[in-house]
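User: tokens in, sequence out, please.
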């Protein structure tokens, strides 16, 4: 097989390369596609916030891959043999072995999900005046660091903000800017350097092993800790395997361990990394472990369950081992790549190359007539739901924050993210997505902006409510009905 052809992808006689599902479906869950009039009512009731939609009104749920990945038969079977002890559970012992085998870290603090890990890490190491450099922030990471008095500095490279690019590692950190930041502010004010495996907010873009090694050298030079957000580490390892010449003959397992070896502290969300729930902080440094461990019983649960169902710990352990399987970690990127390539052929603005987690549509170009102050990415998510029944997520200014004067801090990039949970959707459903998004692009001038009517002070994109500026949703539905008739 040629190296540039993904495993699990078949080249057809027509010349197309189609992602092939390397699994079979044994249990199914029915879906409903409610009429477009009901979808308009539903998004209005939800305050034009896709988080507030009910699943009874959703056809394809592409909000997130967090906790929505398909679980394997082995994961489900292990949930029936869990040791439900509050303390000293043997399920946790098996989890420890799994983390050690896959990540090479022996000291583990279980937490109920990734943001819980961020809370403990930030409370332990961040103080007023701290500066945390990273390749790009995630919403909850930023919130936890700021709540504890710290400041995030993003040191992405110029390639990161190019929508259409052939650069294989747009998630790299700018090492030169990193060293300049350390010299300017002093290493004593930088508690750690954070690297996010497959940067969530800029298109699921990975970093290279070469870049991570360079970050490690700078960290060693100034004696600064390196923290790895490993929630999408499997996909990042997959991209290194596919795109970085030195590692094309290495296994996913080898690459995973090497990434973790470069990190003092690794944390992850089991909702992403292992098709399960839960999460953990892991390290080989006993001093770091001891600084954090007392916060786990306070915020999460005892040290051998950390607020996670023991059954989920068993499933998470199996999921960690499955992360070593190229067929598992490569399935979502192959489907994303297919969608991205097809949408690009149609002239739609999508983040390229395809990354991890989802297909990211550039709402800034798609709805170029809507100013950022009217949340074009949020408007695109709402409009796409209305005409398709597909729930996506806004990743733009709506997901940002306000400054001290109350003005929006405009996002670097306005994206609609359509998540591809592992082994959940079929290719015909992806074709439906492409068709409806293509129709919307040809009718994009019908879409207008949004305005907040209820705005929480923190993480406003989760529960905030908005309304449409003008009656553009009704106009959109009218055009949809004119083109599709009685079609849903």
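Assistant: Sequence out:
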């Amino acid at each position: 097989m040629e190296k540039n052809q993904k495993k699990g992808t078949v080249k057809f006689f027509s010349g197309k390369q189609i992602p092939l599902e390397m699994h079979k479906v044994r249990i199914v869950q029915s879906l409903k596609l409610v009429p477009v009039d009901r979808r308009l009512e539903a998004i209005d009731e939800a305050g034009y916030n896709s988080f507030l939609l009910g699943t009874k009104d959703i056809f394809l749920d592409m909000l997130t891959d967090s906790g929505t990945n398909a679980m394997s038969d082995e994961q489900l079977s292990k949930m029936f043999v869990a040791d439900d002890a509050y303390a000293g559970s043997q399920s946790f012992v098996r989890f420890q072995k799994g983390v050690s085998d896959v990540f090479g870290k022996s000291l583990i603090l279980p937490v109920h999900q990734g943001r819980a890990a961020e809370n403990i890490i930030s409370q332990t190491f961040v103080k007023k005046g701290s500066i945390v450099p990273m390749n790009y922030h995630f919403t909850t990471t930023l919130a936890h660091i700021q709540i504890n008095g710290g400041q995030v500095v993003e040191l992405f490279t110029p390639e990161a903000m190019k929508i259409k690019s052939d650069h294989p590692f747009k998630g790299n950190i700018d090492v030169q800017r990193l060293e300049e930041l350390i010299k300017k502010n002093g290493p004593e004010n930088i508690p750690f350097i954070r690297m996010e495996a497959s940067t969530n907010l800029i298109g699921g873009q990975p970093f290279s092993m070469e870049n991570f090694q360079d970050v490690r050298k700078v960290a060693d030079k100034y004696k600064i800790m390196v923290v790895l957000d490993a929630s999408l580490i499997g996909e990042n390892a997959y991209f290194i395997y596919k795109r970085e010449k030195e590692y094309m003959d290495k296994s996913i397992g080898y690459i995973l361990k090497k990434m973790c070896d470069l990190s003092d502290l690794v944390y992850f969300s089991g909702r992403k990394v292992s098709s399960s729930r839960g999460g953990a902080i892991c390290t080989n440094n006993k001093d770091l472990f001891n600084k954090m461990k007392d916060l786990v019983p306070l915020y999460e649960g005892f040290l051998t369950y950390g607020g996670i169902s023991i059954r989920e710990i068993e499933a998470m352990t199996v999921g960690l081992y499955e992360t070593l399987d190229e067929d598992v970690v490569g399935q979502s990127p192959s489907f994303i790549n297919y969608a991205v390539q097809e949408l690009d052929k149609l002239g739609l603005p999508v983040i390229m190359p395809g990354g991890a987690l989802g297909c990211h549509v550039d709402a800034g170009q798609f709805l170029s007539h809507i100013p950022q102050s009217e949340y074009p990415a949020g408007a695109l998510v709402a409009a796409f739901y209305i005409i398709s029944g597909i729930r996506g997520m806004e990743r733009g200014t709506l997901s940002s924050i306000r400054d001290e004067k109350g003005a929006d801090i405009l996002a670097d990039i306005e994206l609609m993210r359509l998540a591809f949970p592992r082994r959940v959707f079929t290719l015909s459903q992806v074709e439906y997505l492409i068709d409806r998004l293509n129709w919307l692009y040809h009718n994009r001038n019908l879409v207008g902006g949004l305005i907040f009517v209820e705005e929480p002070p923190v993480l406003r994109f989760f529960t905030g409510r908005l309304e449409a500026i003008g009656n553009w949703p009704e106009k959109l539905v009218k055009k949809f009905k004119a083109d599709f008739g009685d079609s849903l």
